[in-house]
Design a protein that fits this description.
- The protein has about 70 residues and is mainly α.
- It has one domain.
- The chain has three helices and no strands.
- The chain has helices at about 1-30, 35-60, 70-74.
- The longest helix is centred in the N-terminal third of the chain and has 28 residues, at about 1-30.
- The protein starts with a helix and ends with a helix.
Length: about 70
């Protein structure tokens, strides 16, 4: 079980780290890299982590992935 959690958080870090890196690159490229930008990026990542974690819990508790594809889509 611990291996799954480690993998889960590794993928979260890779995904949200990529989001931060891409946004920072474009902010730097367009000379928009300000303190305000960094705060907004931090809030975006924090909310994104929270929402993706809650969505994972919701999917697991309802057993959505164990249902047929038609029921998953509905």
């Amino acid at each position: 079980m611990q291996k799954k959690w480690r993998q889960y958080w590794l993928f979260q870090a890779i995904g949200w780290g990529g989001v931060a890196l891409i946004n920072t690159f474009f902010a730097f490229s367009f000379a928009k890299l300000t303190e305000d930008f960094l705060w907004r990026l931090l809030v975006t990542i924090a909310v994104g982590l929270l929402v993706s974690h809650l969505m994972r819990e919701f999917i697991n508790r309802l057993g959505i992935l164990q249902k047929t594809l038609n029921k998953q889509v509905f």
